[in-house]
User: Which sequence fits this backbone?
């Protein structure tokens, strides 16, 4: 143990701890910017300065020493912090009024807190970028904190971002100076949610959606992913307990969509298809394991970095693509009658789905399954544009018949949820009996471990499953599979740590990982649901009766399945 | 005419002069990995500051070239900008009135050639070239990439054994490098900005003098792999490969041609610079790992090499450069004429020469020439003269070696080109005849000597020692099938010998006579690549952690130098010449370390040096 004094408080902390950590323990707040716990302690921004033995030092990477006397808020410290924030602002294109991060920008918050005044410098010009790509980088807003570099290389193992150039020209670039679409980006969007400013954003597609809403010849259909219900309230100031799925449905109606559906329905449908595929797979001699395919970030990662595994992905489309395909095919007559064409909008916690909806190989004879994907952040921005008082909305039901869902569909939004839902139904498909929820439980899944696994006996057949979230964890699991160190039959992968609840399209709160909190929300909704097995969803059953026949049927293959190997990347 | 003031410009220039010293130190400590185009920019800015403004190409040209370079550095330039730079720099070189201008132009053009790849990367890829990235200077410049700040920090914390363990992570010869390393790590030491580079070798010497390397335990060997690795040559490179291969769990056999291990550290470097018992400390520690079998006095010919390559899973050829180069001098067949390799080789086995009453002439200006001269003094020679074609400052020997030699009474006869050796009726050498030279134009970057219009001189000499370089003895290996390019073996960047799957080659025999640390670097590289080739990826736990950094001490200090025993005393014996570094000297040197692995870019790139 080490004894030191912080702002007059004597405290004792573990050896090796940083001054920032020690201050936290002493209840002393120190502002930070570039620092990310355990990932980025490069001390570049110089905002977390403190005074120690007469010197100004960065508290984020200065270890404690016996007898240190630290002052965190002397006039000298505050003046130095402020001067550094001002200097950062001078190199940053602070056109905050038109920046999508204006309310969640850590730099703007600091500038405001430090009473930073207008700069005498010319603002840097906006740098060129391929604006059609779902991930947008504006170098003129980058403050070189390297958080994106750390997140992408250390957590997501894609190493898309790297620094290059020297002195005033030091900047972040896509790997080897490649164009972003050739740099191995999985489009998980984690760099966006960990960027403190508006330097990294997702392509804004709200304009496209507004056009559709304005067009009298368009029937607008919206669907919402499972994980959105756990987070949408954050961006519009509605408490988690008030931001219910029912209010969300009302909020979507307030935006003027003609049909309001729940992707949870398609999640149940996915389970019917993927679960049936897995039952077939279990009896086959195909190479193990089969991988889930609901996450386009994972599909991109596999295609770009582990192509040898792509053939083992389930052929099931992701739920929102299934929903889109079903909508376009089953509502076509209704739309025709009204003289309208259908425009499907997906509200997703995800950036990769902006890519997925445009993959030409996913289209059916009715065209693209989904016409536009909005992130939760875009959804929240639209709600503000429409001045929807979300907290005061009455709760309404989803439109039928493509809106009813089970708790199994809801937990799709968190790591382990797809696997858990699949097991609930796969066991039924094999044994004809519903398993106990506890037998299928995956709530111990966490990005803190590379993966979690489970062994089940289903009608005498051993089934080994594993769940991983985060692409670094995914890489570790794939490496172990390849090296023969582990053996699994069925593996669920979600690209974002914690699953879609921690998605790259979710609302941003500086230095807070909210995946666990949001997952608890989904688990609570599942537990409260009267229907918790996908195969018991009456709307799904009706869809099979009226349109698709049975899982893995010809129509099912036409509408609901794909071959990821053929996808354009 | 009015009154004439005295010394009107003197005071102002004195102040600039004082400022040039830190300016120079800035340049000297240019971090490795600095973008060369940024360096060109700053050089050209200096040129611009020096321009008087009289002539058009200089006054107007330099700022425009600077603007071009600025655009390049901001990745906003295309090929036309490079063409523009070339055009303007050519004009500057060809039409400026004075050297401030035409030399600036020449420098820019030289840079365009020298940094072609870097310019291309800025234009074509929009990023700096691949190896343009600042790192920890000492770690980068050490050929074996020893974690210097870490071991300095351990010495500072009083853990010399820990420091030795930290060094051994990359280099199993801490003692050898403490005593004889040419310390490239010190070249761009960032401390130069504050006062002077750290005496890194001195700190290491303090560590190994405080606790002998063979008293510091080595890591445990990893589980045996059952793979057999042969090492040909027990010098620094071969034994480094043996050490790491054994730690990785392979069974190693070293084939050594001489009676003892150590290679040129024993048979080339004199004992007064590197006492044999100190060398044994490193060797004992290496052999103490286990799993290393040594076949002494085992000559390897083509047939034996073929057998070894067949019976072993991998072979590392590290035979060094053991052949002394000769000069085609008339009379070089005289008795008393020998090569440096011959003289120092015998001493390696304890066979000291007796030059009592003899006059010795040494030909050459490198460290080996100094070794020969200083050895001759100790062998009782009456007179020792070094004859060298160029000037004293052109000698390739380290300054400290030359100074020590002069202090020991050795006469440096510079600008003397040996032409023949005179011999008496019995065929014994009697004198070295030299043609005086004068220093002339620079050729291939060095001022070259030319014959002076002066008569030949005669240097009395019973013994003539030729120290003009070494060759490899490649014949048996070429017969076996290895390819040698003129004098050195051909290998790829991973040290795999051309045309073989399991034969690696490195050290002096692959890149020519260099230094101990470079040989070590090659041995480490070979060990890693052999391990990979055998299908493994062994990581060794060296059981040592990097201490947290203390704050930088910004007070300027003088650099502590390692002293030698008084010349009049040391020249009479073969005992070790250097004095110990004291504890307070070591503490002060350690305290000057700026911990570039923690502060500055090191925080971003300096870590992750734990594995190699």
Assistant:
């Amino acid at each position: 143990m080490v004894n030191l004094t912080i702002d007059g408080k004597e405290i004792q902390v573990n050896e090796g701890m940083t001054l920032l950590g020690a201050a936290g323990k002493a209840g002393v707040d120190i502002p930070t910017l570039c620092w990310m716990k355990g990932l980025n302690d490069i001390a570049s921004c110089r905002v977390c300065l403190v005074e120690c033995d007469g010197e100004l030092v960065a508290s984020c990477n200065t270890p404690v020493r016996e007898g240190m006397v630290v002052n965190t808020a002397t006039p000298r410290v505050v003046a130095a912090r402020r001067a550094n924030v001002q200097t950062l602002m001078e190199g940053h294109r602070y056109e905050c009024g038109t920046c999508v991060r204006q309310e969640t920008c850590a730099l703007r918050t600091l500038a405001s807190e430090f009473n930073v005044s207008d700069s005498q410098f010319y603002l840097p010009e906006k740098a060129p970028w391929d604006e059609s790509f779902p991930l947008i980088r504006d170098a003129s807003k980058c403050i070189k904190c390297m958080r994106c570099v750390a997140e992408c290389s250390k957590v997501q193992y894609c190493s898309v971002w790297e620094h290059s150039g020297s002195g005033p020209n030091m900047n972040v670039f896509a790997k080897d100076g490649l164009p972003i679409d050739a740099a191995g980006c999985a489009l998980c969007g984690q760099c966006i949610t960990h960027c403190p400013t508006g330097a990294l954003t997702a392509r804004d597609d709200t304009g496209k959606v507004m056009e559709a809403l304005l067009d009298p010849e368009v029937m607008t259909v919206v669907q919402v992913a499972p994980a959105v219900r756990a987070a949408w309230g954050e961006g519009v100031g509605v408490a988690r307990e008030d931001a219910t799925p029912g209010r969300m449905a009302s909020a979507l109606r307030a935006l003027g969509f003609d049909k309001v559906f729940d992707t949870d329905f398609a999640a149940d449908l996915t389970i019917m298809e993927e679960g049936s595929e897995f039952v077939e797979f279990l009896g086959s001699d195909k190479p193990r394991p089969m991988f889930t395919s609901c996450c386009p970030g994972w599909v991109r990662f596999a295609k770009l970095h582990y192509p040898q595994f792509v053939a083992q992905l389930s052929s099931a489309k992701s739920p929102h693509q299934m929903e889109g395909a079903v909508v376009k095919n089953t509502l076509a007559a209704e739309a025709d009658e009204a003289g309208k064409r259908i425009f499907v909008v997906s509200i997703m916690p995800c950036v990769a789905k902006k890519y997925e909806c445009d993959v030409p190989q996913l289209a059916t004879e009715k065209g693209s399954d989904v016409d536009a994907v909005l992130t939760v952040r875009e959804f929240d921005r639209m709600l503000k544009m429409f001045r929807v008082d979300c907290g005061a909305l009455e709760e309404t039901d989803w439109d039928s018949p493509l809106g009813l869902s089970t708790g199994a569909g809801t937990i799709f939004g968190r790591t382990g949820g797809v696997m858990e839902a699949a097991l609930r139904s796969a066991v039924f498909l094999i044994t004809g009996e519903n398993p106990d929820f506890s037998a299928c439980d995956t709530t111990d899944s966490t990005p803190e471990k590379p993966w979690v696994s489970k062994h089940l006996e289903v009608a005498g057949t051993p089934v080994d499953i594993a769940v991983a979230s985060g692409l670094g964890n995914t890489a570790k699991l794939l490496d172990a599979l390849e090296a023969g160190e582990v053996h699994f039959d069925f593996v669920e992968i979600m690209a974002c740590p914690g699953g879609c609840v921690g998605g790259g399209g979710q609302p941003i709160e500086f230095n807070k990982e909210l995946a666990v909190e949001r997952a608890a929300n989904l688990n609570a909704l599942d537990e409260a649901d009267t229907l918790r097995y996908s195969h018991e969803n009456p709307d799904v059953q009706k869809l099979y009766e009226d349109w698709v026949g049975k899982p893995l049927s010809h129509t099912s293959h036409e509408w609901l399945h794909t071959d990821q190997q053929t996808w354009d990347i | 005419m009015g009154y004439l003031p005295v010394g009107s410009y003197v005071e102002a220039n004195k102040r600039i002069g004082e400022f040039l010293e830190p300016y120079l130190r800035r340049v000297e400590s240019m971090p490795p990995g600095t973008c060369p185009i940024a360096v060109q920019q700053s050089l050209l800015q200096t040129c611009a500051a020096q321009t008087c403004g009289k002539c058009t190409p200089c006054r107007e040209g330099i700022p425009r070239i600077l603007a071009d370079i600025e655009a390049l550095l901001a990745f906003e330039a295309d090929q036309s900008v490079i063409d523009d730079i070339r055009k303007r720099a050519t004009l500057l070189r060809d039409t400026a009135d004075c050297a401030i201008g035409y030399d600036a132009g020449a420098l820019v053009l030289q840079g365009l050639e020298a940094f072609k790849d870097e310019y291309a990367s800025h234009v074509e890829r929009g990023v700096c070239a691949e190896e343009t990235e600042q790192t920890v200077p000492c770690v980068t410049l050490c050929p074996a990439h020893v974690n210097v700040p870490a071991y300095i920090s351990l010495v500072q914390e009083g853990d010399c054994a820990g420091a030795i363990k930290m060094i051994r992570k990359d280099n199993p010869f801490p003692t050898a490098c403490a005593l004889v390393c040419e310390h490239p790590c010190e070249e761009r030491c960032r401390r130069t900005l504050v006062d002077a580079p750290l005496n890194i070798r001195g700190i290491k010497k303090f560590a190994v003098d405080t606790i002998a390397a063979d008293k510091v335990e080595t890591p445990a060997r990893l589980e045996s792999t059952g793979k057999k690795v042969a090492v040909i040559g027990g010098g620094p490179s071969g034994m480094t490969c043996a050490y790491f291969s054994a730690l990785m769990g392979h069974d190693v056999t070293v084939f050594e041609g001489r009676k003892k291990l150590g290679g040129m550290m024993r048979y080339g470097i004199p004992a007064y610079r590197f006492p044999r018992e100190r060398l044994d400390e490193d060797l004992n520690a290496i052999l103490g790992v286990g799993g290393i079998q040594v076949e002494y006095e085992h000559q390897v010919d083509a047939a034996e090499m073929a057998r070894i390559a067949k019976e072993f899973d991998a072979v590392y050829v590290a035979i060094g450069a053991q052949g002394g180069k000769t000069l085609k001098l008339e009379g070089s067949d005289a008795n008393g004429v020998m090569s440096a390799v011959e003289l120092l080789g015998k001493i390696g086995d304890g066979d000291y020469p007796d030059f009592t009453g003899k006059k010795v002439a040494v030909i050459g200006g490198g460290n080996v020439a100094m070794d020969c001269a200083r050895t001759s003094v100790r062998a009782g020679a009456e007179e020792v003269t070094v004859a060298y074609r160029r000037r004293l400052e052109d000698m390739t020997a380290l300054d400290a070696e030359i100074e020590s030699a002069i202090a020991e009474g050795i006469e440096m006869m510079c600008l003397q080109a040996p032409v023949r050796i005179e011999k008496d009726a019995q065929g014994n050498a009697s004198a070295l005849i030299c043609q005086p030279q004068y220093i002339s134009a620079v050729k291939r970057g060095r001022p070259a000597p030319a014959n002076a219009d002066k008569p030949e001189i005669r240097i009395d000499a019973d013994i003539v020692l030729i120290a003009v370089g070494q060759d490899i003895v490649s014949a048996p290996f070429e017969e076996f099938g290895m390819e040698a390019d003129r004098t050195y073996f051909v290998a790829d960047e991973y040290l795999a010998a051309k045309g073989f799957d399991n034969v690696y080659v490195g050290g002096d025999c692959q890149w020519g006579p260099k230094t101990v640390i470079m040989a070590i670097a090659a041995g480490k590289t070979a060990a890693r690549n052999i391990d990979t080739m055998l299908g493994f990826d062994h990581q060794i736990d060296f059981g040592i952690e990097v201490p947290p950094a203390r704050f930088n001490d910004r007070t300027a200090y003088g650099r502590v130098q390692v002293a030698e025993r008084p010349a009049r005393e040391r020249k009479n014996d073969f005992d070790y010449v250097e004095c110990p570094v004291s504890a307070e000297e070591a503490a002060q040197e350690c305290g000057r370390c700026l911990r570039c692995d923690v502060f500055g870019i090191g925080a971003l790139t300096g870590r992750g040096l734990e594995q190699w």
